[in-house]
Amino acid sequence: MKKLLVLGVLAVFTLFTASSALASKCPQPRKTKSAPAGTAKMDKTGSADAAAGKKIYTKTAKPMACKMCHGDSGGGDGKLGKALKPAPRNFACAETMKDVSAGQMFWIIKNGSKGTGMVAHKSLKDADIWNVVKYIREELMH
User: Fold this and answer.
1) Candidate ranges 2-6, 14-18, 59-63, 127-131; pick with highest mean pLDDT
2) pTM tops 0.85
3) Over the range 47-62, which residues count as b (16 or more CB within 10 Å of their CB) and which as e?
């Protein structure tokens, strides 16, 4: 009887610990370098094309498609992202994304983020980056 009680307590503790680890994905603490003030305040998503952004996000971005790390739904759970420390940005986490401006997103996509797996996407034109930002903000952020 005592063994069953101990096993039960251990099982509950293990489940609690595992669920706490998963819950830490949102919000994601970050110390990402801020974009220059002028860029951080920019927002050219009004004239951007979310459908074109989705194509870049899911298929054509170079050196690799965004979804490979950020996942299909933007949760930071892509195939390659699972191996990265820190984990890729979880766009679906409102608490994490609430203070990230469109300009900051543009800056990070263009220049990468030091200390993370986020690489610079220098081959993308600025208009393409704004398309991706619009897609993320309209379709993946909740």
Assistant:
1) 127-131
2) no
3) ebbbebbbbbbeeebe
31-140 belongs to which homologous superfamily?
Cytochrome c-like domain (1.10.760.10)
The residues spanned by each domain of the chain are 31-140
Q: DSSP string covering 33-57, please? A: PPPPHHHHT---GGG--HHHHHHII
Per residue in 75-107, pLDDT (tens digit) is: 999 999 999 999 999 999 999 999 999 999 999
Q: By the 8 A CB rule, do 119 and 110 touch?
A: no
Angular region, 71: left φ>0, alpha ψ -120 to 50, beta rest: left
| Exposure string for 81-99, b = 16+ CB within 10 A, e = fewer | beeeebbbbbbbbeebbee
Length of the chain counted residue by residue: 142
Are 92 and 141 within 8 A, CB to CB? yes
Q: So what's the pLDDT on residue 18? A: 36
User: Which tokens belong to 105?
Assistant: 């997103």
